[in-house]
Description:
Elements: H1 2-5, H2 10-25, H3 29-33, E1 36-41, E2 47-51, H4 52-70, H5 76-98, H6 105-140
Antiparallel strand pairs: 1-2
Helix pairs in contact: 4-6, 5-6
Amino acid sequence: MGIFRAIPVHIILLIAYFFVVHLTHGGDAAAAMNVLVKQMQLPSGATIVINAGDTFVMMGVLLLFFELMKSTSSSMASVIDHLVSMIVFIGFLLAFILLPSAGHPVFLVLTLVAFVDVIAGFTITIVSARRDISVEEGAMGR
């Protein structure tokens, strides 16, 4: 179970994005992200249309929550997770800059989510570690 804590879940989005874009639409990101996933009539009478791009963004935000929850620990697995999260973010960034199929606003948002994961993960872990250290110092001072 510890190995899964050290793997950032945003790598799933990176792989899924390129899988959807290249295997279903031959690298055409605009066509792949505009595929209708669900259309619903709301009680208000409004119709909500959810396409593949919207689904990727929603999954990115949801997975960000789980990544932030993993950041609250200051274990060795958490440190490895931060390192691999940084590598995943660099992968997103390089893909966005270098690959035509990644030049889509949805991919830019996913890159931003990976960036927030890295920055927030480091910040939360540092604050948690400081709290752990201050609690230990307080207990030792007695």
